[in-house]
Amino acid sequence: MPDRSPGFGVYVHWPFCAAKCPYCDFNSHVRHQPIDQPRFAAAFETELATMRARTGPREVTSIFLGGGTPSLMEPGTVGAVLEAVARHWTVPDGIEITLEANPSSVEAERFRGYRAAGVNRVSLGVQALNNGDLRFLGRLHNVAEAKVAIGLARDIFPRLSFDLIYARPGQTADAWEAELNEAIGLAADHLSLYQLTIEEGTRFHVLYNAGKFVMPDADLGADLYALTHAVTAARGLPAYEISNHARPGAESRHNLTYWRYGEYVGVGPGAHGRFIENGKRVVTIAEKLPETWLNLVEAKGHGIVDGEVLNRSEEADEFLLMGLRLAEGIDLARYEKLSGSALSSERLSALQSEGLVAPVGNSRLRATAAGMIVLDAVVADLAR
Ligand SMILES: C[S@@+](CC[C@H](N)C(=O)[O-])C[C@H]1O[C@@H](n2cnc3c(N)ncnc32)[C@H](O)[C@@H]1O
Ligand code: SF4
Asked: Ligand 1: does its nearest atom lie under 6 Å from the Cβ of 98?
């Protein structure tokens, strides 16, 4: 029986990048003056202390430093944050501690410092193994630098993942298949493979609407998705989630906590958290603008500006939406416990006959490949 405990994760958001990529709508900011890292480290520590007071004593199952570009943090800043997490909660030896890194050479030089601070897994934003596409994506690195960073990360960290963006303008299935095979050959044990999406508020949104480039149509997008899943499965890194692929056992513990609807605290600008407080699941959402967040934390002990207490049906809906992204699917008994009633057997059989969901044994339910593509609609139908 696999261990499917949802877990308790700690997420730390570093909100700065060297440049803003034209496709990205994450909470990331470019600053042309140096960042006061000790001040940020102190604010992270303060916010962690506030979170500890809300969650009570807990055992942490994973820590994730995400961004933005956390590899712009000094190793000392990362060390201070990790020490603060360990002061507040129980952090068992060897739990997954991930840091997102960009593959430029300056950042790669800091890798040893991160390892010494306790980071044991790196997630590298490689994005493409093709210089023309890296330029199109506005990245500051080239393929040679990405490969150096991958090699260095493999030498230094026990675990490595990297991200690629596919379904780029002009990308053919053959070109993607060759690139994906090359990526797998670079021997990461985990790959995050995202289809390029045009997000509102990004530069790509403006350029795309002005007809400056053409995106692959829906049919090609679906073919590339199917190809991605077939190639990774054949090479031993099957999808365990819509966009995430791993050798069995190398799945991201931290991301599994999100999808298994576990608990996590989020600290830093724009971070979200979801954890049980006084028997109810609460949501926390922090101020996005780094300087405003800093002032709030220094004045009030936290930068939380929004949040809510979820009711049963909201929890059950979120549980479905997250869990059906996973190849392992959801535990039907847990759904029933959360929502107070079982999923409607009528709707289940309708969706099953349309080939969108499938049972796993007699206690779990998963979305099929066709169901994953229209997951929001499947969940809306099930949760009705
Ligand atoms: C927060 S970024 C992480 C890391 C790091 N800053 C970097 O870019 O290398 C998370 C990942 O989301 C993906 N991503 C962001 N925006 C995307 C978009 N519009 N379409 C597809 N993937 C996207 C990229 O692969 C990126 O590495
Ligand atoms: S993709 Fe990564 S590096 Fe680029 S702007 Fe977004 S967070 Fe920053």
From this structure: no
